[in-house]
Amino acid sequence: MTPTFKDETLERLLDEVLALSQRKDRSEAVRSALEHELVRLRRRRDINDRVRPIQERASALGLQPDGFDDKILMDELSGDV
C-alpha cells in the first residue's frame, strides 16, 4: 500500500526525495528516510554518551573554558600566521 499524506510539505519533500534518489516506491523512500534518521539519532546519542564522561572528568578537575582560541596558537605553531 502506497503511503499518502495530508501534509502538503511532507508530500513535496517525499516527491523531492523520490526525484533525487530516482526511486519510484514511496514506501521505500519513507522507510529509507526513517532508517537514516534513526542512524543519525543513534550516532548523536552515542557521541553524547562518549563525551559526557570526558566532560565530567574535566569538570571534576576544575577545567573551565577560558575563551582562548586554540586556532590562533596552532596557526602560530605551524607557521600559518
Strand tally is 0
Number of structural units classed as domains: 1
Q: What share of the residues lie within helices?
A: over 70%
Portion of residues in beta strands equals under 5%
Classification by helices and strands: mainly alpha
Contiguous low-pLDDT stretches (5 residues minimum) are none
Radius of gyration: 22 Å
* Main sheet overview: none
Mean pLDDT reading: 86
Alpha-carbon distance between the two ends = 61 Å
* SSE arrangement, N to C: HHH
Oligomer: single chain
Characterize the overall form: elongated
Number of helices: 3
InterPro entries: VapB-like
Protein name: Rv0623-like transcription factor
Keywords: Coiled coil
Coiled coil: 10-44
Brief overview:
The protein has three helices and no strands. With 81 residues, the chain is mainly alpha-helical.
Description of the structure:
This protein has one domain. It is mostly helical and 81 residues long. The model has no long low-confidence stretch (mean pLDDT 86). The longest helix is centred in the middle third of the chain and has 35 residues. It is built from three helices and no strands. Helices cover 72% and strands 0% of the residues.
Descriptive keywords:
single chain; 81 residues; mainly alpha; 3 helices
